[in-house]
Amino acid sequence: MSEWSPRRVAAATARAVGEAVAESNSGSAAGGKVSAAGSLARRAVGRTAHRARQGLVAPSPLRASLAERIIQAGVAAVLAAALGLGLVLTPSPTGTGTHPALGLPPCGMLVMTGHPCPTCGVTTSFVLAAHGRFSEALVNQPFGLVLFLAVAAGLLATLATVATGRTWAPLGRVSVVTTAAILMVVLVLASWAYKWATL
Fold this sequence. Notes:
about 200 residues; elongated; single chain; mainly alpha; 8 helices
């Protein structure tokens, strides 16, 4: 069953009352223009219910479906695991090289050229931020701190969907996603240039 916005239902009911009054006025004699309030109310409610059954009263755009809430619960679990992993890991004192603790190989570009790749230091900064060392995370690799904040915000947003049914689907417009993607690329490149200059 669709969930409706109270504002939309109220508007639909008001519209139905107006139609009922118009019909009453057009079809009544001069002495009986005012219909009984109970009759108008019954007619209005009946019309609203009929429109709801026919799908003419649109569901609220700010309510998440059951499927979306289940998906968001899974996303929340992944994000919470990422933050938990950040708490468990120990940040490398060199500013890079924390990720081998996860069983991953060292950065090939750094090993071969002595220069960092675009993601060098991101894991270390993420772990520093997870331990509350935000200034160190920013100085080490700014994008790592940005990534941590994005994961934390994503966790809060997904939990809000699961708990309250609030949907963030309107933010999924192409223009919003494109702008966010461009911003992320710019931040990655700027952070890489900074790490390259400071390593």
